[in-house]
Structure formats: C-alpha cells, structure tokens
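Quick illustration, no need to memorize.
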Amino acid sequence: MFAASRTAVRRVASTQQRTLYLGKTVAEQMQAADAAKQGLSTYKWVSLAAFPLLAAVTYKAFVNQPEHERAEFVPYGHLRKLTKKFPWGDGKHTLFFNAHTQPTTEGYEDEH
C-alpha cells in the first residue's frame, strides 16, 4: 500500500514538474499548436497572392520603364572639384563611373 501511494505521489510530482518546466499544460500546448497551424495556412495564402503582385510591380518598375533624358551640363565652379586624383585609372573617374549619366569636370565624355 505504501509503495502504491509513493508511485502515485511520484506521478503527480512529475506531472507538476512537466507543467512547471514547460510553463503550459498539455491542453494549452495543443491550443497553441492549432493556432500556429492556422497562422501558417494564412501565411501560405498571402504568399501565393503576393508573388504575382510582386512580379507585376517589378516588371513595371524595371522592364516597362521609358529611357531617361540626360540633364544638361552646367559648369558650376563649386561642383565637381577634383583636388586630388583618384588612385585608379586615369585619376579623373570615380570607381563606379558611368559616362552616360555622370559628367567630369569638363562635361560629359561623349560630347567632347
């Protein structure tokens, strides 16, 4: 009789320890798992709707874009001062220089 009651006390104690360790009862854990499954389902449907929309916006932004006109070069004295040469190339161009959109101190290169 004493052994049976000791076993029962151990079971209750281990159940209480599991509840304290996990912080939730089994029913609360099952409820949280169901909520997570529902959230995952919602996320899947939102993603399926978002990918075509993202593709359409990307197409509009990059592919279906008209060509931009280049701004006229105005030789302002306070802009494009080159007091020290760049350590690469001929020293007049930045590292990522684009001759079509960026003028040098004299103007656009293809106009010379």
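The longest helix spans residues 26-63.
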